[in-house]
Amino acid sequence: MDVTALPRGFFDRPSHEVAPELLGRVLVHGPVAVRLTEVEAYGGPGEDPAAHTYRGKTPRNAVMFGPPGHLYVYFTYGMHFCANLVCLPEGSGSAVLLRAGEVVAGLDLARDRRSGGRSVSARSVPDRAVPDRDLARGPARLAVALGLARAHNGLDAVWEGAPGAPHTLIDRSAHDPRGGLSGLPEGSAAVLEGTPADPALIRSGPRTGISTAKETPWRFWIDGDPTVSPYRAHVPRRRSAAATSVGEAPSS
User: Fold this and answer.
1) CA distances from 234 to 1, 22, 74 (A)
2) In this predicted model, what pLDDT tens digit does every residue of 24-77 receive, in sequence order?
3) CB of 70 closer than 8 Å to CB of 8
4) CA 196 to CA 54: how far, in whole Å?
5) Comparing C-alpha atoms, which of 31, 191, 54, 175 is closest to residue 113?
6) Where in the chain are the domains?
């Protein structure tokens, strides 16, 4: 796996071009790293009715109008956080939702987070432990596994590192209690080159769970990867200030 951090220019493009090229890349936040296997692209103001930015800039979506390569983290359905990577130049308002991935470092911590802080050994029903393939299978699970929440909205995921210094991705559960990417400052994030997905295995189709522009084929995934989440068509439901995926921002 190539642990070189992706440059900002990688994200300074239309989201539907960035999205398929994110597959196989690795997002590191602290001791946990996730290889991305499923993503969704969302367009800019006035062009994509499913995007949070469709009606323009608001305090809630302001990060999406910032520099490319930053994390846009939002709260949905009053219970989940979802993470996105901002695309296009500053002022554009576009992003890619991170839908699913494989935890490749920090497995112990990811399991602990997904179990609500209870170790498997402390559970009364040990066989209900979260399978590894489900640790980051779905946008909310991915955010939990990586420890991403409201405080990380706007976090820069482009890391230049120390020029000329070698870096290593360390599995916290196997080698080092600190884990993550060597040299990455605490509290920082980075998207690594990883191993880009074989183009022959990349599939695209309608985005998941949105009611507008639902036929736009901007969901991309690695065919046959067990961590990819199942496709779900939109089902109307009551909600308050939440939004589905990166889509359908509330009027406020």
Assistant:
1) 36, 25, 19
2) 999 999 999 999 999 999 999 999 999 999 999 999 999 999 999 999 999 987
3) no
4) 30
5) 31
6) 2-222
